[in-house]
Structures are given as C-alpha cells and as structure tokens.
Fold this protein.
Amino acid sequence: MAAHIKLGFVPTRRSVFSAPDAIKYRNLTADRLKELGIDFVDITDINSEGLLFDDSHVGKIVEKFRREKVDGIILAHCNFGTEYLCARVAKELGLPVLLWGPLDEAPLPDGTRLRDTQCGLFATGKVLRRFRVPFTYLTNCRLSDPVFERGLRDFMAVCNVVRTFRHIRILQMGPRPFDFWTTMCNEGELLERFNIQLSPIPLPELTREVRRLLAEHGAQEELKFLQDHTIVKINPNKVETVAALAKAMKNLIEKYGCQAGAIQCWTALQGELGIMPCAANAILNDLGIPVVCETDIHGAITALLAEAACMNDSRSFFADWTVRHPTNPNGELLQHCGPWPISIAKEKPELTCPIAFDDEGSLSAEAKPGDKLTLIRFDGDNGEYSLLLGNAKSVEGPKILGTYMWVEVENIKRLEEKIVTGPYIHHCVGVYKDVVPILYEACKYIGIKPDLYDPIEEDVKAYLRGE
C-alpha cells in the first residue's frame, strides 16, 4: 500500500506588499493542492486571511500541525512573506520544509510590484540557515508548471523517508553469524544518534512460534502462496515449515512493533528447523515487510529507506555484490540465496536448495529486467554514517542459482573502490525506480552523508531545482 503523507500548508505574506494579491495566491495554491490530490492542513482558522504574517500566529500553527500530525510543511510565499515567522514555525516543528513561492507577474503599468515573491524566498532561505533548519527549495514557478507537481510529489517522498527513518524498529532474530564480522553494528549508537531501535530475540523464541504454527496448521495462507507462486522442488513437509517460518516472523515483527527484520539465517536455524529461511524472507519482502539475511541491521535500515523513497509501492531486493560480469567490463552480479520478492522474478521461481547449502527452502529465479534501478547501502563505522547510492541497469548474463540479476554501472572500478574502502560491505538494496534525488535530499534531514558512487551530484542538484 502506498504511503500517505499529510502536509502543513503555511502561506505567508508581508505587510508592505499587496495583501489582496497574497490572499488571491493563497487561494489559488490551495485549489491547486486539492486538484493534485495532496492531503494538507490549512491555517484558515488561525486568522481571517489564512496567512502567516504576525508573531501571534506561530504558536497556533505549531499546535494545530502537531495535533494533525503533519509529516512536512510548505512555506508558500504568496507575496514577499515574513521570513523570521516562517523560520520560527519550521524550527518548532522539526519537520521537512518545502520553501516555494508562485512566480511574480509583470509589474503594473505605473511600475508597482505587487508581491516580490522571489526576493522573499531569498530572505527566508537565509533566515532558515540562521535557525539551522534544513529545507528543500522548489524553484519559483507557476502553479501550472509541471515542475510544481513534480517538486511536491518528490518532497512528499522525502517526507516519507524522513518519517520512516525517525521511527525505525527492527526485529533482530538471533546474533550475527560468527563468521560475518562485516554485519556487526553499534546498537547503542544507532539509538543515541538516530532513534533506531532494535528488538533482539533469541532464535528459540522464533522456532517455538514456528512449531506452534506447524502444530496448529496456522500458516495456510503462506503455504498456498508458495504452492501457487513457486515451482516446488522440496519435500512437502519442508514447504509447510517454510510457510510457518514466514508466518512466525510476521507475528513477532508485529508483536514487537517493528517494521523490518534481520535474521541469523545460518547455521543454527538449519539444526533447529532443517530449512533455509530464504523463501520465508521472500514472502515477507513481497508484503512490504523487509527481512534481510545474516542479521544485517544496516541492511534492514537500507531496505526501509529504499521502499520509503518509492512511497512504499515498490518492493526492494536485498543483494550481494558478488562477481564481475564475464564479458561486460562494467557488469556485476547481484545475487543472494533466494530471499528476493517473488513479484520481481522474471519467471516463476523454483523453491529449492541454495547455492552454498544442502538444506531446502530457498528460491531460484532471475529478476525481471530494469532500465533505471537504484542501488543503495546505509552503513557506518568509527562514528560516521553515510548512504551509498547510485543507478544501474540490468543486462544479460549467465544463469546461476539463487535469486539474481546481472547489472551494469557506469564505472565498476569506481564503485568497487568505494565499497572496499568503506564504510560499506558486500550487501546492498535495489529498487526498480530512480530515487537517487529523493534519498540525496532526505539525507539533509536525517543527518547522514549522501555518497554517490557516480559523479552525478550536479545532475541530481539540477533535477531538484527543477531543471
């Protein structure tokens, strides 16, 4: 289900410019937001004009927006605007801010200028900086310009990323595998710096829930999903165990109030249940509940950010960077044992054994092609965190086992060097959409550094400013 974002609409004016024209553009902007289907909270009950221009309005606006639980605010400069009042509202709320104003019309025949909107935007940008308020700028444009709608919808996606990041709770199912030192994380630092919370449970709590469901045949929906959407090549009893594991993880994720999970997928689980969890992970990944392998907490965070940037209506896939393409000089294999969403498979996947293990329960399928993929990785060490991000496209390549996709990037050597020198590891998350500008912009609000693996920063900035 696509994410729902509610915006706080703060139209503003300044007394020395035309109040009637500010009111006119306040109304025109509100009408355009309604026409676009944007859910927004107005301030028409704050004063008769529905505009911010006096200090007495600030507290009332802040109180209303908090009560209405808005996800971001639009500072719409309907004439010059009152920059310090805009900054006070934004500072109090601590939400993503869209700074924008409608393009000025020509001066009147006598030389009078009615609004001076652009000049006011310059002023507000400076004062927001003084208040240390990060903001997104939507270029000074007409309400009918395509860039207006695009900028609004991109900003809503940014709001969704920020809202997601600020409320992350991940179910950690078991410690990381001993051999995977790469997936260690600093739980205390994630909580202290970002309010990212982990809910660790031991594997026996998970396996008890699996056995309860098996005894009660309580995972029939998941079982039917596997039977309908995969080519089953494993023991029927194991299929039911895979289904029960998916249901058990979903139950525990809901019990602990989490949005995603990270599981110790080997080797203790195989001794307890006799299966790999890959296909069970795939079921939840198809439901928009990311579950990642090898207790990779940073990987689960990455998956949540990727899906949030897509407004939660596109499924992500958790992959290994593995080997170079045998013939394409900038090609690379993205692969994992079988946890990718079934919905992104090119053909009906096989429910089978993974490439490196004898236990049953993984999927094998090539992913469908994509011309504009986004690949990302949230990671950090030594107290510094960043978001690796960039684009790729799928290409033809040899068949392999597991869930996989061959991709081509602009410069594989440059990407390889970034991953090796860190703070990244061999895991990434992909989505079938170009959300690089969304994630780049969101980084300013969540306090991490965007790290583009191709030199496209100026292109991203140009897109964001409406070029």
